[in-house]
Design brief:
With 231 residues, the chain is α+β, with helices and mostly antiparallel strands. It is 13% helix and 27% strand. The chain has five helices and twelve strands. It has helices at residues 71-74, 88-91, 121-126, 131-143, 222-225, and strands spanning 9-12, 18-21, 26-33, 39-47, 54-56, 93-96, 100-104, 149-153, 167-173, 178-185, 190-191, 203-206. Strands 4-3-9-10-12 form a five-stranded mixed β-sheet, with no helix packed on it. The two termini are 19 Å apart. The structure holds iron/sulfur cluster (SF4) and FE2/S2 (inorganic) cluster. The site of iron/sulfur cluster has 12 residues, from loops.
């Protein structure tokens, strides 16, 4: 593994991989479920050896996953970016509670299900004046890998985001028997193939199976495609 120099960034290439620069650490991130099957927490795996800059497969066909081996050319991968370029807040639906507010952009959902336990975060927002409900709500929302869900303090109007170091997770979802998206943490800038700079967000999930209809973001299609790829 090389030492980081330069700022972390991710660039989407035309019908090809994500180019990652800045020595961003990468490790498996597995969804841990409770007895009822509810998503409870993340378990981080060993860091993967990587270079200062590396190319991550986004077609789903590389033989050297998660890294690109050029197979995208053989399979004629169509990686056209179709996601909205509007800012998160412009796309979000708001759910007001007594002390906290929840914002929600459903098209970003990666299907990791941290929102479901304890009655669901939408109902928790309405009961956020109860300290236990508030704790669960903030934990569950911050575990939402895609950043579909964001919690806000009503009085200050500030987002309640847990600090996350710049890093990339390879999502594993044993309950569904699939590998999931790249979980990009810590506000790493993301640049489109045409040079557009997507809004910087603390949590994002990028498609790695090649099947998302909301590229470059994950839309949960890996569950249908049943991709297993990080060993
Ligand atoms: S990505 Fe977020 S909103 Fe979608 S299922 Fe997971 S926790 Fe819920
Ligand atoms: S993007 Fe290059 S092999 Fe998948």
């Amino acid at each position: 593994m090389s030492k980081p120099d330069g700022k972390p960034s991710i660039t989407v290439t035309k019908n090809g991989p994500y180019l990652v620069t800045g020595g961003v650490p990468i490790a498996k991130q597995t969804i841990v479920t409770d007895r009822e099957g509810g998503s409870q927490e993340w378990r981080e795996g060993e860091p993967l050896p990587h270079k200062e800059s590396y190319a991550l497969c986004r077609c789903g066909h590389s033989n050297t996953k998660p890294f690109c081996d050029g197979t995208h050319q053989k399979v004629h991968f169509d990686g056209t970016e179709t996601a909205s370029r509007d800012k998160y807040r412009e796309q979000a639906q708001a759910f007001e509670g007594p002390t906290l507010m929840l914002s929600d952009v459903e098209s970003l959902c990666a299907g990791a299900r941290f929102c479901d336990p304890n009655g669901g975060v939408w109902s928790q927002a309405e009961r956020s004046d109860d300290p236990q409900v508030r704790r669960n709500f903030l934990r569950q929302v911050n575990n939402c890998p895609s950043g579909r869900l964001v919690a806000w303090e009503r009085v200050s109007g500030k987002a309640v985001e847990h600090a996350r170091p710049a890093s990339i997770g390879l999502v594993e979802d044993p309950a569904e028997g699939v590998s999931g998206p790249y979980w990009v943490r810590g506000g790493i800038p993301l640049v489109a193939e045409d040079g557009f700079a997507y809004e910087v967000r603390n949590r994002m999930t990028l498609c790695r199976c090649g099947a998302s209809s909301n590229k470059p973001f994950c839309d949960g299609s890996h569950v249908t495609v049943k991709i297993r790829d990080s060993g």
